[in-house]
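User: Teach me something about this protein's shape.
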Amino acid sequence: MNVSFEYQKKPIEFTLGYIFKAKKFRASLLKFHTLYERPMKGTEIVETFLFEPKENVLGNLFVLHGLGSTNVPFLLWMATHLANAGVRVLMPILPGNFTRVAHGSTSGKDFFDTNVERAARFWEQSVVDVLSVMDWMKQEGLWLAKAFLFGFCLGGMVAVLLNAVNEDFEKTILMTVGGEMATLLWYSPTLAFFRRNEKLLREAPYGVGQKESFLKVFDEDIKKLSQFETVEQMQRSDIHPYLKLDPLAYARFVRKDRIIFVEALFDRALPKRSRRLLWEALGRPKRYIIPSGHVTWLPFEYAVCRFVLKNMGVKELRKQLELLRRVELEEKK
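Assistant: First, the predicted structure itself:
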């Protein structure tokens, strides 16, 4: 099974409608038909939330959400605060999640299907959809040199794939992200749904449902990754299909100096091995370990906003956010 992120670039016809207006920014919903050639029913329309500061846009930030739907509102809330501080924020909804669930499926489920060929379509489309949103920004004259990427959980895994095939982002912040699909599929509590249906596991192609042999083959194929000179060569190789969707396989094509790795000390969703292997595969980039779980940092996005702004290196933004915080505190009194 081959994997590819190729797509036919062309002028993008779109709709852009305002959904919310605040004092310092406007929120809009961008929609256009996906450029991915094999979308599943229900995922055909790319949907992206755009938070546009009304003046002095000092940087662009793409936010890629995690698996499922519950984390999306938290990240949208974070986007409003960053937009208040002068950052243009775009949050594409990844296919198979939130408002783009495939017909008859469940939000987030399809990325880790017992049928790896079905799962591959969602990983491929995620990369194509984000790249096409970037194309749209350039088409509309909105792209800035100061462009950052923030990926949480699933979004962080997609962010690694994006960095392997595109170098437009100045920095990428990976928030609680791991690799090694075999370990995730068989040991992550979040992916318990994958292990639940014994009949589907027995019938799963490429030995995905045979735990011990799958883990062994995966471990052997990981050792082959160093022999590939290009992403395309790896994608056309005979390594396990699920490894072709794994950030581990793409990490060696990503510039270490462009990655900021944030790991949660009490992360139970991602096995420690999964986090460690990805960090090492990325060349051991700058790493921060926070005292939280996989998702327990979400209610504290204000601190994450400060972290993002600090790494974007724009002092004016940090000052604006601090002023915003003071206003909020006054309003609560």
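Now, about its shape. The chain has a mean pLDDT of 93. The chain has one domain: 15-299. If you'd like, I can walk through any region in more detail.
User: That's plenty for now, thanks!
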